[in-house]
Amino acid sequence: MNELSPKERLDRVLAGKTVDRPPVICPGGMMNSATTDVMDECGLFFPEVHKSAADMARLSTAVQQRTGFENFGIPYCMTVEAEILGSEIDFGNHDCEPKIAKEYYAHSADVIQRDPKELVKEGRIAAIAEAGFAISRQQPDIPVIGSLTGPVSTAASIVDPMVFLKELRKDKENAHRVLDYVTDFLIEYARVLVDSGFSVITIADPTATGEILGPKMFGDYAVPYLNKLLDAIHAMDTKAIVHICGRLDAVKKPLSAIRGDAISTDAMVNLLDIKEVRDGGVVMGNVSTFALQLQTPDVIQQVTERLVNNKIDIISPACGLSTKTPVQNIAAMTGTVKYS
Questions:
Q1: Which H or E run contains 73?
Q2: What pLDDT, on a 0 to 100 scale, did the predictor assign at position 264?
Q3: Helix axes of 210-217 and 161-170: crossing angle, nearest 10 degrees
Q4: Directed axis angle between helix 161-170 and helix 172-195, to 10°?
Q5: Alpha carbon separation from 219 to 204, 225, 336 (Å, rounded)
Q6: Under 8 Å CB-to-CB from 313, ≥6 apart: which residues?
Q7: What is the pTM of this model?
Q8: What gap in Å lies between CA 204 and CA 29, rounded to an integer?
Q9: Could you tell me where the DSSP H helices lie in the chain?
Q10: Tens digits of per-residue pLDDT, 251-306?
Q11: Strand 283-287 and strand 314-317: pairing?
Q12: CA distance from start to end of the chain
């Protein structure tokens, strides 16, 4: 097989085709790869970079060059959607990504619906799209991945999450109404990214775990709204990766119904089990982010080699990287995939 470009390799894997080796990526969003090592080196820092298209493009390029990840991944947090939908955001500092400071609504019934096509004109979406457009033109052989916050997590970022999770049982009508609304918004957000040159969309839905929802509510809420979003992305002729946090033993059966082109998991999950549950579907992961932050490069090499030897389709960090992760540890991971 001729040498594949990173974009060709990822495209082929997501389509279930043969490749020379796994891609090694970090999609952005919850799986932010902009570490303090890279920021210090290139002179671009959180939180200012979150709102600047030019700075995002420059920082993403520096991340890709220094870490060896075979993609560009933006944005660098999970608050873009919540900010537009009204929640208060703490933009953090040099060492910390933005987080939700206060959800806008107390109850699902309080949520006021606005036109999703108008919502995507607000907040940081235009800057993210502009950054992706610039990178995709400058580096057409490297995929630009756009990261979305999944429907359940987005809903729980605008309605008090403890209340919202209770209302999944006690006020199903309004819970479904909110989920339908945020999913329509996420579809329009994805459309902006795809139109701007993003070649793959990743959806991270950390609130939609088996441990939080349980198998029934995972099947009733997480699966249908993820699939609504995934079907819309596929209609845009674009592939999509879904990341689900936590242990997945309780939700293996409904997990098999998620129509993502790849499933990404946390470090404690056996990806070969997930691959079997999904009838050989593409799996992604799952190098421990604790190891990446705290262990030595030789340990990272061993962990990564194990995944490669197990024929995991896409190698990536398991979940959110700490901004304090040493860049040499990330390079040990990416180098092991590329050169072992």
A1: strand 72-74
A2: 97
A3: 10
A4: 120
A5: 17, 10, 37
A6: 13, 22, 262, 275, 282, 283, 284
A7: 0.96
A8: 8
A9: 6-14, 36-42, 53-67, 80-84, 116-119, 125-138, 151-158, 161-170, 172-195, 210-217, 223-235, 252-255, 271-277, 289-294, 297-309, 327-339
A10: 988 999 999 999 999 999 999 999 999 999 999 999 999 999 999 999 999 999 99
A11: parallel
A12: 17
Q: Which two tokens stand for residue 190?
A: 């994805």
Which of the 8 DSSP states describes residue 77? S
142 to 5, 137, 180, 296: CA distances (angstroms): 7, 10, 33, 28
Low-confidence ranges of the chain (pLDDT < 50): 1
Q: Is 162 exposed, middle or buried (0-12, 13-18, 19+ CB in 10 A)?
A: exposed
Domains and CATH numbers, the chain: 6-339 (3.20.20.210)
Query: Can you read off the two tokens belonging to residue 66?
Result: 């220094």
Q: Which two tokens stand for residue 269?
A: 């999950």
- Alpha carbon distance 244, 242 (integer Å): 7
Whole-number pLDDT of residue 2: 61
